[in-house]
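Field notebook, page 307. I keep forgetting to write these up properly, so this time I am using the form the group agreed on. The chain and the ligand, NAP, are recorded exactly as supplied. Prediction of the bound pose follows.
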Amino acid sequence: MKILLTGASGLVGSAFAEAAKRRGHHLVGVVGQAAFTIPGLAEKRALDLTVTEGVTALALEVFPDAIVNCAAVAEPAACDADPARAQVLNVELPALLGKLAHHLSARLIHISTEQVFSGDRPPYAVGDEPRPVNLYGRQKLESERRVHEAAPDFAATVRAPLLTGNSLGGSRSLHERLLADWAAVRAPRLYRDEIRQPCTAGNLAEVLLELCERQDLRGIFHWAGAETLSRVDLARRIRAHFKLSPEQAPITEINRADDPAAARRPADLTLDLKPLAGVLKTPIETFDAQLDQLILPPPVRTWYFSL
Ligand SMILES: NC(=O)c1ccc[n+]([C@@H]2O[C@H](COP(=O)([O-])OP(=O)(O)OC[C@H]3O[C@@H](n4cnc5c(N)ncnc54)[C@H](OP(=O)(O)O)[C@@H]3O)[C@@H](O)[C@H]2O)c1
């Protein structure tokens, strides 16, 4: 299958490129600023995805069987910092890809987030009412609507959870950020009562790939890991996995009630994974299985081996 992949340099996109190559697909991957090599791509294209004409020209040139959209402003703080740019990448780009997918009769796989939910009434099923509490969640929710309006016969959207895994730059994912804090002698402030259900970017990539191949699955779906954990528990398990002591890897534990910023962070984003969990071959990962895949990121190796 010929696949046009946006966000090929990102946490999910790079994992998707590797997974798709293993299954023999031909991948044309779009990157923005990233200069590094991306294993798995047959072709790498540098393109500013905020420019409609460039995106349209590339899609018409490649004429893909599937478009997988992993490009985004993927963090709430980054959306707040530049809402206009985030609107283009998180809403207008998926809408455009929806129109192009419809025009090309191509499968479109889009990624949304569990942050479309408010977090006060878990677990969340696919049909539950979304009520985002931050701009990122509102933009991703709008992207879902626009994608499925434009390409109802071709699109599948996965609402993904907090992601673990190894990023190409070594600084994007959960354990990479924690280790960077500890290497800089910072104690990350983490909630005891904010609950997430992580999976690896690689596991999500397998799901996206199965969806490319399963044209019968259309609409919005949920995917996540097998366990729900607090932010504090996640950090403790990562700390233990890397055999770090609480002195080497300190955590400042906080409660949502004590932090005004918690109002714009959903409390508990436990997802109900039906119906996808019953119909895909991709296994749902335990957190131990996720930990086993984590490597020591290059930016913190000198610090780690000096301990
Ligand atoms: N990470 C998570 O925990 C998480 C959780 C739930 C859902 N998601 C969703 O999963 C998807 C992938 O997220 P991610 O974590 O993989 O994101 P990421 O690591 O931040 O990667 C974002 C990608 O978008 C590209 N990009 C951004 N602006 C661009 C532009 N103007 N032109 C071209 N490319 C541009 C980046 O390219 P360059 O770096 O080359 O510029 C990069 O490849 C997103 O839809 C996100 O909302 C992520």
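OBSERVATIONS:
- The longest strand covers residues 107-113.
- The chain has eleven helices and 13 strands.
FOLLOW-UP: compare against the apo run.
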